[in-house]
Amino acid sequence: MAKDKKLPLQSSNNANVAATATSAKTIEETYQKKTQLEHILLRPDTYVGSIEKHTQTLWVYENNEMVHRSISYVPGLYKIFDEILVNAADNKQRDPSMDSVKVTIDVEQNCISVYNNGDGVPVEIHQEEGVYVPEMIFGHLLTSSNYDDSMKKTTGGRNGYGAKLTNIFSTEFVIETADGKRQKKYKQVFSNNMGKKSEPVITKCKESENWTKVTFKPDLAKFNMTHLEDDVVALMKKRVIDLAGCLGKTVKVELNGQRIPVKSFLDYVNLYLQSASKARPDALPRIAEKVNDRWEICVSLTEGQFQQVSFVNSIATIKGGTHVDYVTNQITNYVMGIVNKKNKNANLKAHAVKNHLWVFVNALIDNPAFDSQTKETLTIRQSSFGSKCELSQEFLKKVSKSGIVESLLSWADFKQSKDLKKTDGTKRQRITGITKLEDANDAGGKSSDKCTLILTEGDSAKALAMAGISVVGRNYYGVFPLRGKLLNVREASHKQIMENAEIQSIKQILGLQHGKQYDSVKTLRYGHLMIMTDQDHDGSHIKGLLINFIHSFWPSLLKVPSFLVEFITPIVKATHRNGKVLAFYSMPEYESWKESLGGNASGWSIKYYKGLGTSTSKEGKEYFSNLQMHKKDFMWVDEQDGEAIELAFSKKKIEARKNWLRQFEPGTYLDQKEKLIKYSDFVNKELILFSMADLQRSIPSMVDGLKPGQRKILFCSFKRNFVKEAKVAQFSGYVSEHSAYHHGEQSLASTIIGMAQDYVGSNNLNLLQPNGQFGTRHQGGKDHASARYIYTRLSPITRFMFPKDDDILLDYLNEDGQSIEPVWYMPVIPLVLVNGSEGIGTGWSSYIPNYNPRDIVANVRRLLNGEQMEPMDPWYKGFRGTIEKTATKEAGISYTVCGIMEEINETTLRITELPIRRWTQDYKEFLESIMTGNDKIKDPFIKDYREHNDDTTVHFEVIMSEENLIMAKQEGLLKKFKLTTTISTSNMHLFDPKGVIKKYDTPEQSMIALYTCSD
């Protein structure tokens, strides 16, 4: 039966296979228990680092200077030297009177000694261990004075290995110490890797004697060495220099009997900078700050690679760590802000700034923790440092003025240029992959200079162009439609430009190469670029943006004759009953002709061409049949042309742009009879019309508080006697038809909805009724229903605000041959103060807070009675928080708006109001961003929240720890929980009765202006 006996189950790696005779090991041989000492000697890399030679480029000290060179050294040997050195430095923290460290490195005798004065090791027997304390801490493993983590220590040792490792990796290790307090001197010799020890020799010493000296002979065989090599000695000497820099002027450090000439951390840093400056034409900058007793910082510059030299409690953290990050992040954030402000296209990230920095840090940290026993990287959290290192504004300003900002700006320009070149086009006959491009057959070929690329405003304009080129053929004409307005590349970020498909497509189609100087069109795929847009203000803006794009990147191209041309179509056609047809290419030109007719306008029928889509295919063919009549060349005359383009599109020209718009004269237009258009004339006579229209769309009139779209809606409401409700979508159509509204009906529907909204933070008096879901404070009105499903009509109060008897007195406009809304209405009280306003237009922005209608009525009565008005503060219907005046300046008044928060108990807060225009959904997202369970944050501040909000009220309950609630109260609950905002009257820009932008410093000032106007 023995042969039927089954063997145990065997694994696939043969672990259970019986050992052969030649490789047989007993259980005892396979599984061994080692003493701690044996384990250290068997696995030294776990404790002191590698015992193999490493070749690395490091700083060393030789010939009285720092040198950065490649060296070969054994990390383990370097570490056992460092342990003794750090022990000596630690004594300065225990005994501030320590003022001497002496290091001797005897290469011939393979002997190293480190001496420091100050309190020695207590020479007495440890009652629990039964041995003298010096023997215990230098000759027994896992003994230390640093085990009690409840005590905050700023020493280097922590885990109980330290000097014992030096003892273990030495053939001889001698500890000598003088304990003046007990008047005993102690000496003991260890040998054979701490395997043997002599009996301690104890003699008497003076009370004034206090010192410790460690002498050791490294066991070079353990490090595969025969003698102390030059590279290792140079590295050891550098560590002695480190010690002098860290300990400063109060400690005299000697090496081989010579005093180290470093008396401060700044002296120490200078050794590096002097060495690094040798290869430079100029000296490296040095910006230093002793932040407090625990932090010394110095910053210099590098060329594209971050460098750091740092110490924690005199330990050289050669790989940095959290202390270096703490300091570096403050610098990078500050510098990054300056660079991105100077060039917003830079889109600079922190790591880019960091790569230009050389940071030196000397820090004392409570109970430091490292990534390993070799202590190369500090890992303890910033919150546990035991001190703060907040760099001063003066220091940060000095860093920013050191040349780093200029270097980073140059680097950013280079990087952007390099990135943009990746999207360059080339002159080739066939390009593919560009949707909607109708390429000319000869584009990129021998006759490319004769080819014209037509850029159209949208697909409908492309259809018209395609109908037209059926007349002239496809060999020399290509068409590409633009999707809306081109990006303003002059103010766009680098990322925006790189991600803008339209910009990249135009470069590819034309064959444009970034940074290239173009004196001719020979290297391009097309010799001419034709802009074909609607003849309205937005069409002019698109032309301007395209001109701006080319001027920003290839200004020389605008100087090439006939490269840039525009295709013009009529904006109005007048047809006489006798068949005569007149075409007008601008509204001022048409208005001038109409005025010249006087009373002889009968017999003419007028057709308005609101866009290129209004023209028929037949008309398109007619245009292209007489191409010279419809084509106009842009012409570069002098640098005034470039200045005009910058004036219109550069952020740097904001003030000049404001003056440009102030000087606008109604009736200005570009004479389309001219065949050549100067770029400066285009900007000053055509583009300015868009800028004015944009401003009027964005900023209300001081008189009625309305923008043009709102005024058209009010006009049509009165015209229709809008007392019976209708769908918002239907009413939009009515307004568009009866008020010559030239923009999309979706935009009109949004304006109607806005005029009817009545949630907290919207209108104090809504002119239209919100019959349906018009939006709530939950999402700031964005949660309104579709215009197809909600109804509106005039609010009963609206006709009281705008009396019907005044209608006949108003100055009505005339457009598209029909009488439309007035220049402005005249409300009985200033509506602009009742409902406020906000908008951004060309050159100006405007912000008007809401005010209480009762306060406004009271002040109107005071004005009528010739009395002094009372100052008014902002007020929002339904808002239960506070609005407090915080500052009064010439330019306006500032207010702090606060929500409502109350403390329920030690761990719960109740929030029942948010600041004005801080919407409930946004606030909910904020709470979630600081809550436990959010993986994106390291230190969540709250545990949870509960919500009892509805469409009109706010009610959050926030649950947090008692400790965090105390911290929040110290910081200020409202501030910590973002329950404050500021509003101001410093930006109250409005159109005055004459249509001129004017700034009002107070609401009362605008009321006086309105009173004067209506008088």
Automatic annotation (TrEMBL):
Residues 699-1015 form the Topo IIA-type catalytic domain. SMART domains: TOP2c (SM00433), TOP4c (SM00434). The keyword rRNA-binding does not apply. Its EC number is 5.6.2.2. GO terms for molecular function: ATP binding; DNA binding; DNA topoisomerase type II (double strand cut, ATP-hydrolyzing) activity; metal ion binding. Residues 451-565 form the Toprim domain. This is DNA topoisomerase 2. It comes from Camellia sinensis var. sinensis (China tea).
